[in-house]
Design goal:
about 300 residues; 2 domains; Glycerol-3-phosphate (1)-acyltransferase; two-stranded antiparallel ribbon; seven-stranded mixed β-sheet
Length: about 300
């Protein structure tokens, strides 16, 4: 193994890990289990590696577990790492909605407003037309539904919405139905995010309203996690602004350990507060600067 290469890769991963609570990162550190890297974080790793080594590894990440695996992949020109590929075609997503899906989505939006008390602010910050990316924090499985519900009077075209979602939603008919309703596009969380991000860029250019949770996964304790760079990179590539969105109350209603959301407490409906911030333009900003700005604005909306 090339020691200089190993040191460089270790430095890249350590930099991206940033403020994560990791005592010591070694070549044996597991990217997902130990460092908590998700699909969007792995995209950042791929971008950094391509910039340093001029090697594209996005389509060869299946089977990669540790930092040492990354080093081996880079040093091996043949990239002898199993690449099983996805058992779906990302170009098919978001799956076409029928009138049935639109009616069902509208019904769930009305039901949400009936079961929970919505407090919505900052709608004037969301453009009436044009392209943009909605970037809410992630507290529950229903965050996407509730964000679209908050935008009900904003004339969002429900047949032209999409959201990046974990590919595990394809494993059951129930979750797959929800994926269709919300315009879900599956993301391979094992690391190969490039096809999904490429498809997301195509959808934005085609006039879809895109929603991405920059945290990459739901909060386990209700607190906002560090933002990943995927949303910022997509905004730069598409040259569209990001709309910071703050969701409060969703974790209390539907925390990760519950199978169903709560409805009432002491006979009163739970409140969901959704705030939309001013658009953040990607012009002249790096992925890191844009991500930091977005996280600051989403946090500020909660004060």
């Amino acid at each position: 193994m090339n020691n200089d290469m190993a040191t460089t890769v270790l430095s890249i991963v350590t930099k991206i890990a940033g403020k994560r609570m990791v005592e010591r990162i070694t070549l044996d550190s597991r990217l997902k289990q130990d460092l908590g890297f998700d699909s969007l974080t792995m995209l950042e790793v791929c971008v950094e590696i391509q910039g340093v080594f001029n090697i594209s590894i996005e389509d060869k990440l299946k089977g990669i577990s540790t930092i040492n695996d990354l080093v081996t992949l880079i040093s091996d020109n043949n990239a002898n790492v199993p690449d099983k590929g996805a058992d779906y075609n990302i170009e098919d997503y978001p799956l076409p909605k029928t009138k049935y899906h639109i009616r069902k989505l509208k019904r769930y939006m009305r039901l949400s407003r009936f079961l929970w008390r919505f407090e919505i602010s900052g709608l004037d910050n969301v453009p009436k037309d044009g392209k943009y990316i909605l970037c809410p924090n992630h507290q529950s499985h229903y965050d996407g539904l509730w964000t679209w519900t908050a935008l009900k009077k904003h004339n969002i075209k429900l047949n032209k919405i999409c959201v990046l979602a974990k590919q595990e939603h394809l494993e059951s008919e129930k979750s797959k139905s929800g994926l269709i309703m919300l315009g879900g596009m599956p993301v391979d969380r094992s690391g190969n995010t490039v096809p999904s991000m490429t498809r997301a860029l195509e959808c934005i250019n085609d006039g879809y309203t895109m929603l991405i949770h920059p945290e990459g996964t739901r909060s386990r304790d209700g607190k906002m996690q560090d933002f990943k760079g995927g949303a910022a990179k997509l905004a730069i590539d598409a040259n569209v602004p990001m709309i910071p969105v703050r969701i409060d109350g969703a974790w209390d209603i539907f925390p990760p350990h519950r199978k169903r959301p709560k409805v009432c407490r002491f006979g009163r409906r739970y409140q969901i507060k959704i705030s939309f911030g001013e658009p953040i333009s990607p012009n002249g900003k790096s992925v890191e600067e844009l991500t930091a700005k977005l996280q600051t604005e989403v946090a500020r909306l909660g004060t």
